[in-house]
Write a structure and sequence with these properties.
mainly beta, Lipocalin, 8-stranded antiparallel barrel, globular
C-alpha cells in the first residue's frame, strides 16, 4: 500500500502556519514504519505502524527534544491526511505523500 523511499509532507499549526517536512525518508515493512527527516523545528525520526485499512500511527521524535503523535488515513490516491498532537495543548493537520518518480519534462514521448 505504501512505498518506501522519499516522501514529502507538511504540518499545520495556528502559530507556525503550514510547514514543509523534507527531505523525508519513510520505510514500510510488515506493518511497521521507520523514517527520518527535517523541518523548521529540526531533525527528527519517525516510528510507528500501519494497518491494511490505511490507518497510520507515528511518533515523530525531534532529536534531543519533544515528541509529536501523528494519526492519519490513506485517501486512496496516494496521500495520508490526519492530525498531529502534542498533548494536551497543541494539535493540527498534516499530509504525507510519496515523491513520484517522473520522467524529465524535456524528453520526447518516444524516448520514455
Amino acid at each position: 500500500m505504501y512505498p518506501s523511499g522519499e516522501w514529502r509532507g507538511y504540518w499545520d499549526q495556528e502559530v507556525w502556519g503550514r510547514q514543509p517536512m523534507g527531505p523525508l525518508q519513510l520505510r514500510f515493512r510488515s506493518g511497521k514504519i521507520e523514517g527520518e527527516g527535517r523541518d523548521i523545528i529540526g531533525r527528527f525520526t519517525f516510528e510507528g505502524d500501519y494497518d491494511d485499512q490505511g490507518t497510520i500511527r507515528l511518533v515523530k521524535h525531534y532529536l534531543g527534544r519533544h515528541q509529536v503523535f501523528y494519526r492519519g488515513v490513506y485517501d486512496g490516491e496516494g496521500t495520508i491526511f490526519g492530525e498531529w498532537q502534542i498533548p494536551p495543548l497543541w494539535s493540527g493537520s498534516f499530509a504525507l505523500a510519496p515523491v513520484a518518480n517522473k520522467a524529465p519534462a524535456d524528453l520526447p514521448i518516444e524516448d520514455l
